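hey can u check if this looks right to u? its 338 residues, i copy pasted from the old doc so theres a chance i mangled smth
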Amino acid sequence: MPYLYNAWYVAAWAHEIDQTFFTRTLLDLPVLFYRKPDGQVVAMEDACPHRFAPLSMGVLVDGKVRCGYHGLEFDEHGACVGSCINVVAPKAARVRTFPVFEQDNIIWIWMGPGPAGPTEAIVRFPFHTDSALRPVFGVSAAKADYRLFSDNLMDLTHTAMLHPLFGGLNYQPKFRSWEEGDDVVSEYTSEAPSSMLVGDTPVTGVDTIRWRAPGIHSLLTRVTPKDAAFQAAEMPAAHIVTPETATSTHYFWASALPKDSPVSSEAFLASLTQVFDHEDKPMIEAVQRRMGQRELFDLKPILLSIDASSVRVRRKLNAMIERERAEATAGSPLQPVS
C-alpha cells in the first residue's frame, strides 16, 4: 500500500520516550528513539548500515548509539563516529535520521524524503497540557489498515451498535458532512436523556470531528442541557492513526475532563479503553481479515449517506498520495502537507 510520506506523523506520546531506547515501526520502517540529556528527541532507522543489526540491541554511550553486533557508534545525526573495537568504518557510513518535533505531549516525525514541512501547520491539541483539565492518554496496536480507523472515526453512527456506554441505540443523530480546505468535517447532533458531562438532565449533544491528512482526527463534544439550571459543557478528544504496516496501525487517543468532574481519571481512562480496545478494535480488525489485501473501493462497497465523510477522506488522501508519487517520478520537489 502506498503511503503519504511527505507529512508529519505521530510517532509516540512524549511520555513514552526517555533516555533509553524506544522502538516503533512506522510506515514499514523500524525507528529507534531516545532523548538526549537536554531532553531533545532523536529518531533514526533501527538498523546498522554494516550488517543491519537492530541498533536497539546495542547501548547508548556518551550520547552515541553503539551497535551491539560490531560496536560501530553513531551520533544524533546518524554519522558513524567511531567503534569500540579495532575497525575503521568508511566515512560514508551513516544511519538515516528523521526530523522530529515535540508539542502538546506528542512526538511528531517526518518520514518523507523531502524537506520537513513547517511545524506551524501541525494540528494543535492544547487540551493535552491544559491545567484546568485532566487529560488521559492511550495507544492501541491494531491489526488493520489505518484508513479503516479513519472510516470508523468519521462515521459516528456506529456508536448505536458498538458503544452502549455512549448511548447505544438511543444515539440517533442528525448528520452532515463538509470540506474546509484540505480538511473533512463531520457533525452529529443528537438528543439524550442525560450526559456524564452535565448530569441527569435531558441534553442536546453535538459531536464535531475533523480529519486532516494523513490520519489526524480532532473531536469536540458539546452538550447543552434543556434545563437552564444546568450549565453547558464540552469535551475535547484526539484520535490519531499512524500506519505501522499496510495492515497494522498505531492508534493514539486522548481526551480530557474538567478538573472538578466527579468522574475519576481512572474510571474515565477505563471507559475509553473499553470503547477503543474492546469495541472498535475487534470490529475493525475483523473487517480487515475479511478484506485481506484488497482495497476497499476495489470491493465495490455499498455506500450509505453516512459514508459521505469517509469517502471524502479517502478521495482526498488518495489524491495527495498520487500527487506525491507523480512529483517524485517527475523529479519535482515534493510539496509538504500543510
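The radius of gyration is 22 Å.
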